[in-house]
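Hey, I'm writing a tutorial for new members on how sequence and structure tokens pair up, and I'd like a real worked example in the thread rather than a made-up one. If someone can provide the structure for the chain below, I'll link this post from the tutorial.
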Amino acid sequence: MASNGNSESYVKIPKIKFTKLFINGEFVDAVSGKTFDTIDPRTAEVTTQIAAADQEDVDLAVKAAREAFDHGKWPRMSGFERGKIMMKFADLIEENKEELAALDAIDAGKLYSLGKMLDMPETANTFRYFAGAADKIHGETLKMSRELQAYTLREPIGVVGLIIPWNFPSIMFGCKVAPALAAGCTVVFKPAEQTPLSALFFAHLSKLAGFPDGVLNVVTGFGSTAGAAISSHMDIDKISFTGSTDVGRLVMQAAAKSNLKSVSLELGGKSPLLIFDDADVDKAVELSLMGILFNKGEICVAASRVYVQEGIYDKFVMKAAEKAKTWVVGDPFDPRSQQGPQADKKQFEKILSYIEIGKKEGATLLTGGKSCGEKGYYIEPTIFTDVKEEMTIVRDEIFGPVMCLMKFKTVEEAIQRANSSKYGLASGIVTNDLNIANTVSRSLRAGVVWINCYLAFDRDCPYGGYKMSGFGRDNSLHSLEEYLQIKAVVTPIFNSPWL
């Protein structure tokens, strides 16, 4: 393990500047005056107190967003003008990437170096991507069957509630907020209670970029209060939620019981990675470890079920164990670290409990399996072998650095076992055989299939699930459709020489 000591020896930790709710262009206390602690997972100590939004605060945020949508200039300005403001916002994100990366490190345990190189540039570029799409939202001219002229308009859906989890606070902010704003919607955004700091900093930057008041509102607080208030609000037109399948059910129920608002859900995953006999074993090991250990396994598409064909299985197991033991867990500000602490105590304890369940159910612990470090929420990279499909660690999403490693014989068996999960978010294939790649990719019931790569995200590539992993898409122009609705306009035509 790398040092989990004094982070200031690597980076100057920024002072926390924003801790209040952001409503109608201003930072304000919660109506109740309540706050909650945000905890640093490196040390398990309190970082600061954050305003705790409740129903009254959500009401104020929705009122501001509704006023900005119904009477403000944001949905009425040209897409080009909206894009210019979004471009300025993207530039401000990039200019402040070090501070934002530090906030995600002390809030979520994310690697500071990756935050600077990946999360913040990707968030900025997502806003640039959708800024470029804002003036390219087109309707259609329809060819009617009688003396009618018709066309469609693609209009912003209205006030949207966006609720995200704690594993990618900045990237998720971008992939939810950017398409909603490009479409001309106004936003009430709720970050996870574990990771509010970067969202509040983005709110500050939005004011500097020139977003009109009420267009972007950020309410911090708990899912059972602020999140529930957003999901059931009668004046919110659309919800996009990323999180657990259980909470996704609650969001759908609240939407149905209130005003039947439109819902998009990106939920859990138990993603399979299928490695065939003809694969380069070293490359396969590298992909599989990156697939499960990236972001400490706190990623919906983690390659938590790794199936290796029997001809290379033993060699793969040996190399995977060797490589996992060299993986550096430590302070997220230490440039040597490859894995920081889990996001909070609850998740830390949940992962360790699943490791114990795996051992009790008869799986063999190949590597890891323990916490590490004198303080904070650090867990060793963990690999189980001798795993059976009915085991809890194979069925449940653990959301941590825990790999289930299994052997298969035939292509048909691999497909059947990969598809046996209730989830269908992502999947991976490692093979040099084009026929296998084609057959398996078309057979897997998953929203994303990566061939000879993994975690190959891009802002132009749609991302979302099959089955109990949800519906709707983030990223790409498909996600823009989530925030638009289609209106048909029809007029009669008289004495036209043609229809």
